[in-house]
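Question:
When you can, review this sequence-structure pair and walk me through the tokens.
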Amino acid sequence: MVLADLEFAQSPTAKEFDLIHSYSGQKKSLFQYLDLMEKSGKIQQILLWYSEPEKIMKDLKEICIKIKAAGGIIEDLEQSKILIMKRRGFYDLPKGKLDDNEKYKQAAIRECQEETGLQQLTLKEGLLTTYHIYRDRDHKRCLKKTKWFHLIGSAQETLIPQTTEDITELFWTYPEDVSALKPIYKSVLECFEQFSRLKLNS
């Protein structure tokens, strides 16, 4: 689900969405859109617009359990490659929930270390923040806020996938080859788009 204002909803970019609706301002109405995305095989991308998109996000936070997470793109500068993992059948990036009293940057380094086995990591810069709605084990809806970072690592270190997190594969690849990997999460592609923009401007 993408939250936007009327101007974006009327732009050519909006045509790529399966459904475009105006938000009524009643937070209970959000359940129908969430149910639709969960149960419909045809509706995958919904654009919900309102004069103040921030209100939609505020209402989503009130009806979902809020989860904080951090992760990142690990780059080997010598080979100009980045690290990709495969988790539960999807190509993904290392990430995970924040521990109590933990900062996003601390969590990004820790999670990347735990999930890949790489210990010599340096956090370089922030990339972007994404939001994801899912059901937890108790079938409750959660809104996960993930802050993504650019980290520097080395392909000389031994990769050790964290199998307890269902990670089955780790490998280095060139950034331009990521778009060919399928299936892959939209948020991961957004991270690589931002990563590529920053590299071009550096």
